Amino acid sequence: MLKEFKKFIARGNVLELAVGLIMGTYFGAITKSLVNDILMPPLGMLLGGVDFSKMKLVIQESRAAVMQGETEVQPAVEEIAITYGNFISTVITFVLVAWVVFLVVKAYNRYMKKEEAKPEPSTPPPPSKEVELLIEIRDALKK
């Protein structure tokens, strides 16, 4: 079983998959930074100074704990909100990543079509029946 596992891990497919996963993870991080740090600020400015990271629908306001002396009468409550601005940023990130993946796949497919169009080095056609018969006669005469 250990040999099978070693053979499995040593395959090129597994290594390529690992490299692809790592590259994809960091590509996603770069794209997220591109959207959040570079694209969203000017887009927010064009939309009237909107900061997408602060866009939210507050369901419950936060409040501090109410104390009476040393006793806590009401516990502190953190804000509960739907942060739809983050969702908008994530959707834009997804669209950009999908676009780039589309372009990469399109370029790869174009490259593969060019590779397929290249003629393979031709192998000589098999000899005709007459030539085969002559070869057999020659070989018989040599013996």
Can you walk through the features of this model?
By secondary structure, the chain is mainly α. It has one domain: Orthogonal Bundle (Non-ribosomal Peptide Synthetase Peptidyl Carrier Protein, Chain A), CATH 1.10.1200.120. It contains four helices and four strands; from the N terminus they run ααββββαα. The chain has helices spanning 2-10, 12-46, 84-117, 129-142, and strands at 57-60, 66-68, 71-74, 80-82. The protein has a two-stranded antiparallel ribbon with strand order 1-4. It has a two-stranded antiparallel ribbon with strand order 2-3. A hairpin with a 2-residue loop joins β2 (66-68) and β3 (71-74). α2 (12-46) packs across α3. The two termini are 53 Å apart.
List the helices and strands and how they pair.
Elements: H1 2-10, H2 12-46, E1 57-60, E2 66-68, E3 71-74, E4 80-82, H3 84-117, H4 129-142
Antiparallel strand pairs: 1-4, 2-3
Helix pairs in contact: 2-3
Descriptive terms for the model:
143 residues, mainly alpha, Non-ribosomal Peptide Synthetase Peptidyl Carrier Protein, Chain A, two-stranded antiparallel sheet, elongated
Strand order of the largest sheet: 1-4
The CATH class assignment is Mainly Alpha
Label the overall shape.
Answer: elongated
Give the N-terminus to C-terminus distance in angstroms. 53 Å
**The CATH architecture:** Orthogonal Bundle
The oligomeric state is single chain
Pattern of helices and strands:
HHEEEEHH
Category from helices, strands and their pairing? mainly alpha
Radius of gyration: 33 Å
Question: Can you say what the CATH homologous superfamily is?
Answer: Large-conductance mechanosensitive channel, MscL, domain 1
Question: Using DSSP, what is the number of strands?
Answer: 4
Q: How much of the polypeptide forms β-strand, as a percent range?
A: 5-15%
* Whole-number count of domains: 1
Total DSSP helices = 4
Mean pLDDT: 84
Instruction: Write the CATH fold name.
Output: Non-ribosomal Peptide Synthetase Peptidyl Carrier Protein, Chain A
Question: How would a textbook summarize the main sheet?
Answer: 2 strands, antiparallel
- What low-confidence regions span 5 or more consecutive residues with pLDDT below 50? none
Helix content: 55-70%
